[in-house]
Design brief:
The chain is α/β, with parallel strands linked by helices and 214 residues long. It is 36% helix and 20% strand. It has two domains: 120 residues, Nucleotidyltransferase, domain 5, CATH 3.30.420.40; 78 residues, no CATH class. It is built from seven helices and seven strands; from the N terminus they run E-E-E-H-E-E-E-H-E-H-H-H-H-H.
């Protein structure tokens, strides 16, 4: 028998650059999403307000009574029992921050806080057959890393490809535009602060991938 009012959950991806939320049904299908920037300069309270606003928007769209719960994926060291972020280098101000309870109090809904890498692995295990579990090049190896054509950031393909060099938009355009290699090598020969060579990018992503899958 088909459930007339199927339940759904809301997942939140809290990153150092992007703040995204999506409503997901029980089969893993995305019903809707809200995307914005993480306003770290405004402080943790402002980030929580933006997060709650995104969740409220989705909850209003798909029904408060059907919401099963909220899951938040955050970088850093997470204590699930207390729902706190203990250490997180790329989210200044969030050290020892009770994120789960803050969101729970604002919304009155069940909230689970999990490390974002663990959440990604669970998601791949759950919907891998129709997701990207078989596409290892799309597994995130650098949080908030280089953009990929699939819409995500920091995947193995995006981080390992030669011209996708941090801090060098020109190099990125060269690769994405499928230009000849010579302009890219010219960029590599004249590195600037923050620039990562193709070899270092590939070595880093390979090391992370090896660590994740060992």
């Amino acid at each position: 028998m088909t459930e007339q009012n199927p339940r759904y959950s809301i997942g939140v991806d809290l990153g150092g650059t992007n703040l995204r939320a999506a409503a997901i049904d029980s089969a893993g299908r995305m019903l809707g999403k809200v995307a914005g920037q993480t306003q770290l300069s405004a402080g943790p309270d402002a980030v929580v307000r933006d997060m709650v606003a995104a969740i409220v928007k989705l909850r209003s769209q798909f029904g408060e009574d059907r919401l099963a719960g909220i899951g938040i994926g955050s970088p850093g060291i997470i204590v699930m029992e207390t729902g706190m972020i203990m250490e997180v280098p790329n989210l200044p101000g969030f050290e020892e921050f009770p994120l789960r309870d803050r969101v729970n109090r604002a919304l009155g809904a069940p909230v689970i806080l999990e490390n974002d890498a663990n959440a990604a692995a669970l998601g791949e295990k759950w919907v891998g057959a129709v997701g990207m579990a078989g596409e290892l090049g799309h597994i995130r190896v650098v949080p908030n890393g280089n953009p990929c054509a699939c819409g995500n950031r920091g995947g193995d393909h995006a981080e390992g490809q030669g011209g996708l060099a941090r801090g060098r938009p020109g190099a990125r355009r060269v690769i994405r535009g499928r230009s000849t290699p010579s302009p890219v090598f010219g960029v590599v020969r004249s590195p600037q602060p923050g620039f990562r060579t193709p070899a270092s990018a590939q070595t880093e992503s390979l090391g992370v991938r090896k660590a994740c899958w060992s």
